[in-house]
Specification:
Number of strands: 0
Largest sheet: none
Oligomer: single chain
Number of helices: 9
Distance between the termini: 94 Å
């Protein structure tokens, strides 16, 4: 029995373009090496080296875009660097892969607030206020309270 012929260049490009194959698979990068990169990115986040974490997150999500964990770490790094549009997109990508992840949903809602989309964030935060994860529920309640204060705020009137 003979082995099947190796895929042609066009087939590889097609598989990459259609999301059936990741660059890490084409380059034969073992999962343990991707995990080592992920751990390095997480360590960078832990010690406040957010710019490096952004670079590592970008590399990870380029090499293997099928991991919600990689997208989440990348989004958090972007969020910390206040690259809010990119953070929102990365949180969205993480949620495509893991739509029920409560912490990701909460962080995305926070980014929406910073982007001036509080009306879009409020229903998500209201739902998360009842989350099973107490830390997520607490953060959602805190963000909702801040939204309420912002909505109630009125600029001071100038003296006459």
């Amino acid at each position: 029995m003979t082995a099947p012929p190796p895929p042609q260049h066009g087939q590889l490009c097609d598989a990459l373009a259609r999301g059936r194959l990741a660059l890490a698979e084409v380059a034969a990068i073992p999962p343990r090496e991707l995990e080592a990169l992920y751990e390095l990115a997480a360590q960078c986040l832990d010690v406040g080296r957010d710019a490096e974490a952004v670079d590592l997150g970008a590399a990870l999500t380029t090499l293997f875009p099928f991991s919600a964990r990689y997208w989440r770490a990348y989004a958090i790094a972007l969020h910390r660097r206040l690259l809010l549009d990119r953070a929102r997109a990365a949180y969205e990508a993480a949620l495509v892969l893991d739509p029920q992840h409560q912490l990701t949903r909460c962080y995305r809602a926070e980014v929406l607030i910073y982007l001036g989309l509080a009306d879009e964030a409020a229903p998500e935060l209201a739902a998360l206020r009842r989350a099973g994860d107490r830390a997520v529920a607490s953060r959602a309640a805190e963000l909702l309270a801040q939204l309420d204060r912002l909505r109630a705020w009125r600029p001071p009137t100038p003296p006459e």
